[in-house]
Amino acid sequence: RLTRSANALACAILSADREVMMSRALGLVLLAMGCDGGKGSTTAEGTVGGQALTVAGAWWGGPFIVVMDQDLDCLEMAWVNRYYDDDDPPVDFDINAVQFNYEADEVVDGIYDVSGEAAVTASFVSMVEGVFATEKARSGQLIVDEITNNEVILGTFDLTFDSGTLKGELGVDWCSNVKG
User: Fold this and answer.
1) Which of 65, 80, 26 is nearest to 173 (CA)?
2) Which of 59, 61, 67, 163 is 20 to 30 A from 173, alpha carbon to alpha carbon?
3) pTM score > 0.70 for this model?
4) Per residue of the chain (180 residues), what is the pLDDT tens digit?
């Protein structure tokens, strides 16, 4: 099994201009490896503050699970943090994401209520046209059913915010750059 670095390198090679036959063969290999922005089988539906979350990428690492509408490579995930200042955005591009923060130093399987001062909290993180905002979920649940070989998280979430709801399924790949 390839490491994340080798996976990222292989993904980069695929995007380079190569002979058609070589690209097709390599593309099949990379598809099998999961060059999909870590998204895996993650889905989400709903809106928060009028912003939809159409899943294009998802990663987990350290105490975080992040599901987003951008297809970011693992190397681009160093912006994830426990706390954000609305006046100092962590990114300079448009993004909508739901971020789960564990109070502990790592993600652990189980059923978590995200209300109040919980062991796991959930926030909607949004940067739209230069305006950065976060909104904490006021109620809901994160269920992490399984952490497969410390690489893939499987589970579900169902969240209520003051300005909307989000629910979905998790099939998220591990990323060493998500550490806060």
Assistant:
1) 65
2) 163
3) yes
4) 334 444 444 444 444 444 433 333 333 333 334 444 555 789 999 999 999 999 999 999 999 999 999 999 999 999 999 999 888 889 999 999 999 999 999 999 999 999 988 999 999 999 999 899 999 999 999 999 999 888 999 999 999 999 999 999 999 999 999 986
